[in-house]
Amino acid sequence: LVTDEEWYGREVELALSDHPALVKERWAVNPPRSATTKYERRWKALGKDIYLFRTIRRGWCPDCEPPTPKEEEPMHEVVPRGDSAADALRALYGQGGGSGETIWIYKKTFSSGDGLHLIEVVTSDDGFEQKFFLQVVERASNCLVKIPP
User: Fold this and answer.
1) Both 88 and 128 in a single domain?
2) Predicted pLDDT at 120
3) Number of structural domains found in the chain
4) Are 95 and 119 within 8 A, CB to CB?
5) Residue range of the domain that includes 104
6) Which of 16, 42, 136, 144 is in the most buried spot, having the most CB atoms within 10 Å?
């Protein structure tokens, strides 16, 4: 874990320290790293310290119970399909939403021609930008929207 918030790093360290299959390997402040993320570079530019917490897995833990699956919200959405899904998806370009410092916007659409499409989505939360894709699968009477693996 790499973070600019010591309290968060310590909270993760505390949460993982009791797990019998994990052992703390390292806690460091401003460790030298050959590769850094854009967030680390931004934090350093702001004069913030960077905290690194690393844990390793000891191996199989016979006393550990496997996690109990919990009910989750479905990851896929079914939406009605019009005449041309490709045209409808292209029309989304530049549309978005959000409030305050948290926004999202639809960007490029990529279509394979066989009913598969990808929509690039850009989000910004408090100045930190992320990109991800939504996959749209055309079906006979609707489209399935999902996050690709």
Assistant:
1) yes
2) 93
3) 2
4) no
5) 77-146
6) 136
